[in-house]
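=== RUN LOG ===
request id: a7f3
mode: sequence -> structure
chains: 1
length: 261
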Amino acid sequence: MGDGGGQPPSITLNWSSHPNTTGFTIFRKLKGGTSWGSTYATAGGAATQYTDISVQVNTSYEYKVVRSTSNLGSGYGYINAGIQIGAVEFRGKDVLVDNTFTNSLAVQLAQLQNDLEGEGWKVVRHDVSRTASVTSVKSLVVADHNADPTNTKALLIIGHVPVPRSGNLAPDGHADHYGAWSADTYYGEVNSSWTDATVYSQSAAWTRNHNVPGDGKFDQTTIPSAMELAVGRVDFFDMPSFGQNETTLLAITSRSSIIGK
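=== RESULT ===
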């Protein structure tokens, strides 16, 4: 899907053709709206685009396109589009947590920080050890949030910063995976209690899934309350199939516009 402008202003959504399609239903709302409301438009099964001519310049719209099929259920596509949207000068504070790459990827990390600031983020950076406890890393994030709770909105983790593990579940449905799983949400949920006292689970084939009281893995299977920070991680630790070490993989990633634009 994509957007385009013209005279009069219009936004065109494009999608690929798919077999067995019976039609498309299009919904639209203003960015940040909480409800899609009723159907905004429809298109036939052979359609590959829809042009919205009821748009205004410098207005951000969100679209949802639902594909109906004869035998494959429904498919969903989403896009945020607008024409000549004004620059956002300040999006909030982004806490950047780096691990071990301060020197080896100094250029890429500096570019990342510049890119984030160019997009309107004020970056608060911490360099931590991969042997640090998850609680000590979280204390840095919580302190940054509490110093400016209104504006601190996101956390970006670069490298193998200690991975929190939590819960007693098997999200892939396999019983031999039952136990604790990675939970970076722990870092983004800053004002509820995460305990390590009640879950006892050692049936999983992988010891990393084992979870017993006092082992540093948390009890919570669901996030205790709404998260205060959006959380993302770029981590290439323990990926031997690629043939390069994690520093090289992160450097390659920076050249492919995930770390550095």
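=== NOTES ===
The helical segments are 106-118, 134-147, 185-188, 246-255.
The CA atoms of residues 90 and 248 lie 32 Å apart.
=== END ===
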